[in-house]
Amino acid sequence: MLNSSLIYLFAGLGAVNGFIFGGYLLFSKIGNRKANIFLGIFLLLLSVRFFRSIHFQQFGPDRPLFLVAHLAFLLAIPFLYFYFRASLRDEFRFRYFDLLHLTPLSVFLIESFNYKNIVSFVFLLFYAVLSHKELLRFSSKVKASSVSLQSHNYYWYRNLLIIIYVNVVFYITNLLFHFVPFVLGAVSYSFIFYLMLFYWNRYQQYHKQRKILRKYTHSGLDADAAEGYKRLLFEKISGEKLYLDPDLSLKKLADLISIPYYQLSQVINQQLGKNFTEFINEYRVNEARKLLIDSNKFHEKVESIAYDSGFSNPSSFYSAFKKIAKTTPTQYRKTFFENKKSSPNL
Questions:
Q1: Does residue 211 have a pLDDT over 70?
Q2: Phi and psi of 159, rounded to 5°?
Q3: Radius of gyration for the chain, computed over Cα atoms and rounded to the nearest angstrom
Q4: Which tens digits make up the pLDDT trace of 309-326?
Q5: b/e code 18-49 from CB counts within 10 Å (16+ = b)
Q6: Is pLDDT above 90 for 284?
Q7: CA–CA separation, 197 vs 203, rounded Å?
């Protein structure tokens, strides 16, 4: 009984939160507005469909509710495709022709309960394949570009499609052979929804980077100028140790070396394949490495080394050091002096 209650609770929470988050996306101005709307509609309509799954498991068949929920599901499916197109195509515009995707009502001619469900999930599979083609097109475009976009955004779209493929196969197989209770379909939806929510902040970062990509396209910075700026950047950042300033920002660095800040950003992203924080933190971590193994600073606290290296706080220092050096500052220092003790000639 407890396990059954937990299943219904998780399924119900997923559907309720799908409504809430879907409604939020309809009015959210953060990120890609069109993509937000399409994803919001997709979640709202899908939540209707999986509320019906919970109702069916609890109270049995209800034909009017089934027809409403089935229609909601059929209407939701094309919005997945619209979401991918709006997210991955800068030039996407919703046109009257796209309304043809919203007219799958001939499926209602099929009277069998199970076959009607199977057809709708085959319909979902078809639109997942169309969405996959959009992703492949976008992937090819990014690979041909000199701008490095954060890879986890690509993997978010890819993994979303994989989950949809797996759910479609699982759901159709279960409709035919009844391996597990019907309500687990709503549970699988809850899993997909919470995964979407988990990655939402990363999606916003992805949208910001695409704005940078469009800005770079019109920056007017040619290859020779970019190479000159890169040499000047290395010369100034290393020679004057500008990275030791804990308040250093992209704008401040650009002013110090007399480069327009948006072109400096382009040089760091395009020429070096990093963002500003990653670029500066590499210099700071390298400085910290030198200080940590300096015998004159052997008894100095690691937190003090963090400030001496240009970090504004120990927390960001520890995080950056472990990411770049693949170990902690304390362990790095300990390993060095242990090796030195065992091999005095080091």
A1: no
A2: -70, -35
A3: 27
A4: 999 898 899 999 999 989
A5: beebbeebeebeebbebbbbbbbbbbbbbbbb
A6: yes
A7: 10
Whole-prediction pTM = 0.54
First to last CA, the chain: 66
Rounded Cα–Cα distance for residues 265 and 245 (Å): 18
- Given its phi and psi angles, is residue 258 left (phi above 0), alpha (psi -120 to 50 degrees) or beta? left
What pLDDT, on the 0 to 100 scale, is given for residue 216? 55
Distance, in Å, from the CA atom of 24 to the CA atom of 319, rounded to the nearest integer, reads 33
Rounded Cα distance between 247 and 54, Å, is 54
Cβ atoms of 2 and 177 closer than 8 Å: no
Q: What is the pLDDT of residue 131?
A: 92
How far is the C-alpha of 125 from the C-alpha of 143, rounded, in Å? 27
Does 208 have pLDDT greater than 70? no
How far lies 234's CA from each of 134, 230, 260, 275, in Å?
39, 6, 16, 15
CATH architecture of 216-342: Orthogonal Bundle (1.10)
Percent with pLDDT over 70 in the chain: 68
Six-digit token string for 262: 């948006």
Sequence ranges of the domains in the chain = 2-213, 216-342
If phi > 0 it is left, if psi is from -120 to 50 it is alpha, else beta; for residue 32 that is beta
pLDDT at 95: 85
**Distances 322 to 73, 76, 243, 273, 325 between C-alpha atoms, Å:** 46, 44, 18, 20, 5
Structure tokens at 216: 């770079």
On the 0-12 / 13-18 / 19+ scale of CB atoms within 10 A, 207 is middle
Lowest average pLDDT, out of 46-60, 145-159, 297-311, goes to 145-159
125, 168 contact by CB (below 8 A): yes
Alpha-carbon distance of 284 to 278, in angstroms, equals 10
